[in-house]
C-alpha cells in the first residue's frame, strides 16, 4: 500500500513511511525494482537476453592475473618501496604484482622487524627455502628436458594446466602436450605450479631420456644430473635434492633411483616414500615425501567407530568406511571419461565405455618383442612383465623358484600342499588345488565346470 501511494503521487516517501510504519529505504528499493522489471518487459527478446554482468566462467578458464607474478618480482617490488621510496601503488603497477599482496608483505616485514619472535623466524626460513626451491626447479627445467607433471587416480596431468586440464593415460601424450603447449612458459609457470607452498611441498618430474639441453650430454641417472650441473655449468642444487621427486614414465614403470619395477603407477608412487624421509610418522616410523601423505597415513593409527551413513556398518578406520561407501553404495564420480562427461567407479568400466563409445580414440599398444597388440595400457604392462620381464621378484620359500607375477607364485605354492582337500563328486579322486579338480572334471567327465567340495 505504501508503494502504491508513492507511485500514484498521493504522498512522498517519508510520509508513506511514517503512515504505514515501514522503512523509507525499503520503499525506495521496491519502487526501483518495479521500474527495472517494467523496463525489462518493454525491451525486445534480444535485448532482454543480454546479461547485466558477464557470466561467471569455469574455474579453469578464469583470468588468473592475480597469480601471474613471481616471488622474485614481488621481492623486487618490496625492495623498491622500502629502499627507493616508491609508493605501494606505483610499485604494484610497475612490477605488475597485486597491490594488496604487496601491502601485506610490507606490513608483515615491518612487524617482524619491530617485534620478532620464534614463529616469525620459522616462517622466514620456510619462505626462503621455498623461494630457493622454486629457483632451483627453474634451473633444472632450463638445463634439462625434464617434464613437470601432476597425478591423480593413477593418471597423468600437465603441471601447467593442473588437474583442470586434460588427463593422460600415456606418458608420451603428456610429454608431447607439455613440449608443444607450454614451450613459452616452461620456467615462467613454475611459480604458479608451486603456489601455495603449503600445498606444493614437492614436485614430480618425468626424467625419461634425460639429457642436458645446453651441451646435449646424456644423463643416465638422477644423481648424474646433479653432478653434471655442478661440475660443468656451476649450478648447485640444494633444496631440489630432497623436494623434487624423479619418475621415469615409460611403458615399464621402474623406480628412477633403485630400478625396481612396478606393475602400476600407484605402487611406484608409494614406493618413492622409501627414498625420501622428509616426514616421519611418530607412531610407526614410516617415512613419507610430503606432509599430505603423512597426514593420510596417520589415519591408520586413529582407530575408532566409523559407521556407514547408508547401511550403518561400522569400521574401525575411516578410510575403510569411505572405501566401503564407494564400492557398495555406488558413488560413480571418481573416474571421468576423457572424451565425455560420463563417470565410473572403476578404471576398467571407463575402459569398456571408451571401447564402446569412443573407438576412434583407443590407442593400440604393440609389443615390440612378440608383436601382440593391446587396447589398454594395463594389459600391455602386465604382458611385458609376465612374458618378457627379466625381474622375478616373487620367490617361493619351499623350492626357491621365482616368478614375475604374484598370482603365479600363489598358484605354484599350492603344489607344495600335502593335503588333498578338493574331491571329485563323480569318482572321488582327490586334488591339492581347485584348478587341478577343474581340469580333471573337464578332461575325464566332460564337465564345463566342476563342483568343489572341501574335506573337513
From TrEMBL:
Gene3D superfamilies: Classic Zinc Finger, Homeodomain-like. Transmembrane segments: none annotated. PROSITE patterns: ZINC_FINGER_C2H2_1, ZINC_FINGER_C2H2_2. It is found in: Nucleus. Residues 1-11 have a biased composition (Polar residues). Residues 253-280, 279-306, 306-334, 365-393, 394-421, 422-444 form the C2H2-type domain. The keyword Transport does not apply. It holds the Pfam family HTH_psq. GO terms for cellular component: nucleus. Keywords: Metal-binding, Repeat, Zinc, Zinc-finger. Residues 1-65 are annotated as: Disordered. SUPFAM superfamilies: beta-beta-alpha zinc fingers, Homeodomain-like. The keyword Ribonucleoprotein does not apply. SMART domains: ZnF_C2H2 (SM00355). InterPro entries: Homeodomain-like_sf (IPR009057), HTH_Psq (IPR007889), Znf_C2H2_sf (IPR036236), Znf_C2H2_type (IPR013087). GO terms for molecular function: DNA-binding transcription factor activity, RNA polymerase II-specific; RNA polymerase II transcription regulatory region sequence-specific DNA binding; zinc ion binding. This is C2H2-type domain-containing protein.
Amino acid at each position: 500500500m505504501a508503494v502504491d501511494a508513492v507511485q500514484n503521487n498521493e504522498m512522498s516517501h517519508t510520509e508513506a513511511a511514517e503512515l504505514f510504519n515501514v522503512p523509507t529505504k525499503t520503499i525506495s528499493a521496491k519502487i526501483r525494482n518495479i521500474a527495472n522489471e517494467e523496463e525489462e518487459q518493454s525491451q525486445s527478446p534480444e535485448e532482454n537476453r543480454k546479461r547485466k554482468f558477464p557470466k561467471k566462467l569455469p574455474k579453469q578458464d578464469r583470468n588468473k592475473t592475480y597469480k601471474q607474478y613471481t616471488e622474485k618480482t614481488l621481492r623486487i617490488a618490496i625492495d623498491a618501496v622500502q629502499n627507493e621510496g616508491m609508493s605501494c601503488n606505483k610499485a604494484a603497477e610497475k612490477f605488475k604484482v597485486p597491490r594488496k599482496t604487496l601491502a601485506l608483505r610490507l606490513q608483515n616485514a615491518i612487524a617482524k622487524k619491530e617485534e620478532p619472535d620464534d614463529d616469525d623466524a620459522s616462517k622466514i626460513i620456510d619462505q626462503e627455502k621455498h623461494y630457493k626451491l622454486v629457483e632451483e626447479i627453474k634451473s633444472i627445467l632450463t638445463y634439462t628436458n625434464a617434464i613437470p607433471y601432476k597425478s591423480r587416480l593413477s593418471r597423468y596431468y600437465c603441471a601447467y594446466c593442473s588437474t583442470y586440464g586434460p588427463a593422460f593415460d600415456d606418458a608420451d601424450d603428456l610429454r608431447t602436450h607439455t613440449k608443444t603447449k607450454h614451450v613459452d612458459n616452461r620456467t615462467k609457470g613454475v611459480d604458479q605450479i608451486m603456489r601455495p607452498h603449503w600445498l606444493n611441498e614437492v614436485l614430480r618430474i618425468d626424467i625419461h631420456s634425460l639429457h642436458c639441453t645446453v651441451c646435449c650430454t646424456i644423463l643416465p641417472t638422477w644423481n648424474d644430473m646433479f653432478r653434471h650441473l655442478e661440475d660443468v655449468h656451476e649450478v648447485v642444487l640444494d633444496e631440489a635434492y630432497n623436494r623434487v621427486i624423479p619418475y621415469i614414465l615409460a611403458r615399464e614403470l621402474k623406480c628412477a633411483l633403485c630400478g625396481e619395477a612396478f606393475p602400476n603407477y600407484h605402487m611406484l608412487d608409494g614406493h618413492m616414500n622409501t627414498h625420501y624421509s622428509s616426514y616421519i610418522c611418530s607412531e610407526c616410523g614410516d617415512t613419507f615425501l610430503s606432509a599430505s601423505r603423512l597426514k593420510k597415513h596417520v589415519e591408520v593409527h586413529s582407530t575408532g567407530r566409523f559407521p556407514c551413513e547408508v547401511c550403518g556398518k561400522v569400521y574401525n578406520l575411516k578410510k575403510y568406511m569411505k572405501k566401503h561407501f564407494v564400492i557398495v553404495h555406488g558413488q560413480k564420480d571418481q573416474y571421468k571419461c576423457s572424451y565425455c562427461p560420463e563417470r565410473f567407479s572403476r578404471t576398467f568400466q571407463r575402459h569398456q565405455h571408451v571401447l564402446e563409445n569412443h573407438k576412434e580414440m583407443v590407442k593400440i599398444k604393440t609389443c615390440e618383442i612378440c608383436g601382440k597388440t593391446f587396447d589398454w595400457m594395463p594389459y600391455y604392462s602386465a604382458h611385458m612383465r609376465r612374458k618378457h620381464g627379466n625381474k622375478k621378484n616373487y620367490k617361493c620359500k619351499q623350492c626357491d623358484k621365482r616368478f614375475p607375477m604374484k598370482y603365479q607364485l600363489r598358484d605354484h605354492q599350492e603344489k607344495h600342499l600335502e593335503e588333498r582337500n578338493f574331491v571329485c563328486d563323480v569318482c572321488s579322486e582327490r586334488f591339492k588345488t581347485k584348478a587341478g579338480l577343474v581340469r580333471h572334471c573337464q578332461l575325464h567327465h566332460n564337465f564345463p565346470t566342476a563342483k568343489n567340495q572341501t574335506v573337513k
